[in-house]
Amino acid sequence: MLKKEIVIVDGYNMIGAWPELVKLKNQDLIEEARDQLLQALSDFQNYEGNEVWCVFDAQFVPGITKEYSKYRVKVIFTAQGETADTYIEGVVKKLRNVLTDVYVATSDLAEQQLVFSKGAQRISAMELYKDIKRSKKALEGETRRFRDQRQRGTWTEEQLATLKDIYKDMLE
């Protein structure tokens, strides 16, 4: 039996670390940066088959805790005064069990140590960035192979060679 995998991402930590998201943040396009992050996490989730949660603290969107799904990623905005770190620490304790592996993506070293002590695996912002790029490249390769196969039909190279041989024999 395979374990369920949940990847919990500190959203603003990723926005502060990934090159294209840092650019958007520096141009005061935080909403666009969040959206681009969620799209990348969704693609990663779909390709890898895990569940992804993205936590943003109330730093930019004050109010009560808010949860919703966007691009099939669970999005959490913490309550005003609650940090993403605090929320993540609490949820790791609840989620982590014999049937569920929890990974926390953050480059905050103190947070990494704390979630690790609670049984979660830690992933740095750049490790997740590279994993997402790797998944995207693999998906593009599979898509290209599928498209190529559809364009030439459902025949393999070996089958096509056999058909050519049969055709030659019929002509003789």
What does this entry look like structurally?
Helix 2 runs antiparallel to helix 3 and helix 3 packs across helix 6. The mean pLDDT is 84. This protein has a six-stranded mixed β-sheet. The chain starts with a strand and ends with a helix. Helix content is 55%, strand content 19%. It is an alpha/beta fold and 172 residues long. The protein has a single domain, classed as Rossmann fold (3-Layer(aba) Sandwich). It is built from seven helices and six strands, in the order βαααβββαβαβαα.
Mean pLDDT: 84
Number of domains: 1
CATH hierarchy: architecture: 3-Layer(aba) Sandwich
Structural class: alpha/beta
Main sheet properties: 6 strands, mixed
Q: What name does the CATH topology carry?
A: Rossmann fold
Query: Total number of β-strand segments?
Result: 6
- Helix amount: 55-70%
- Kindly report the spatial arrangement of strands forming the biggest sheet: 3-4-2-1-5-6
Order of helices and strands: EHHHEEEHEHEHH
Which percent range describes the beta-strand content? Answer: 15-25%
